[in-house]
Amino acid sequence: xxxxxxxxxxxxxxxxxxxxxxxxxxxxxxxxxxxxxxxxxxxxxxxxxxxxxxxxxxxxxxxxxxxxxxxxxxxxxxxxxxxxxxxxxxxxxxxxxxxxxxxxxxxxxxxxxxxxxxxxxxxxxxxxxxxxxxxxxxxxxxxxxxxxxxxxxxxxxxxxxxxxxxxxxxxxxxxxxxxxxxxxxxxxxxxxxxxxxxxxxxxxxxxxxx
Length: 210
Fold this sequence. Notes:
CATH architecture of the domain at 2-29 and 74-191: Up-down Bundle
Mean pLDDT: 81
Shape: elongated
Strand content: 5-15%
């Protein structure tokens, strides 16, 4: 029962992490324009994402434009696209595997195989979390580096909301994968010991005393 409860918690954390990665991939809020100068017009805000950049007016109107070509994008943006999409696919696949091998489902009847399936799902969630953290950390490093560059004083950008969402989503996926691996290994060891105990007990010769 305890293992099932922890697995349900891991599923919840994994789903929240997956939603965070999807939001991070879809919204154009990786970089936002900074207003740190004295003579900067704040009537509009520039936002950049993985797929488009947007200009938001002070009246609330928003105009977005998709990037013209993948080949003209910087290397960090190209890598962020690939890693974020792979993280979404890997976390989704890991959650499906977890549902098949969890203790609170009956998709797999063999109790000895369930811990192995759960460990595979946990490793997948760990990899998905790492793949989610890498692109946002890379983009954050470049934003901070360009922000401190005195040459780009007029075009400074700050960290957008998607950077923080990506960090949170990656942390949730790592937590879910770590818990799942720990619970699955402990459950596998205990079930193996119990099976061995019963096997030895069953094979032990019986003695009849008169």
